[in-house]
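thread: overnight batch results

M.L. [08:02]
morning all. the overnight job finished for the chain we discussed friday. pasting input first so we're all looking at the same thing
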Amino acid sequence: MHPQNYVRHFLNFASRNSLNHVWFTMVTNQGGSGSEPNQQPSIASYAFGDLTAVRGRLSGRARMYFSDRRTPGPVVAPFDENRTDDVGVDIALDGDGVSVTLTAHDWGDAQQTLTGVENRDGVLVATGSSIGNQTPGATYLISLAQATAPT
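M.L. [08:03]
and the structure it wrote out:
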């Protein structure tokens, strides 16, 4: 399915009534940076939350978790829940395609628009800036699902 038809389906669903919204999950991955022996590991991130229909687009906010932000203490683990970023997600129909804009609210509302948005088996796939601009770019995957709030 063309990405525009895919997004239109969810936008129409969310626009039908105020109880409808769209659940999203976004994951990113970027390669390692630098050269041996000081190469930095690759970084993955994820965010999930609700999108609502706002002025003809799907919009929402979520906490974004990062693999390079590790928990302190004797058991070190990635994706420290106390070191997340507040990110805005905006998905819109744009001409013949789909526009995805991310807003890093914890970083002065810096924005980036993802490029090359495709629909691959029900997942939006795009490219954009890497986290911290450590590598030339990153891959972004966004899945959408219909949800209705209980009455």
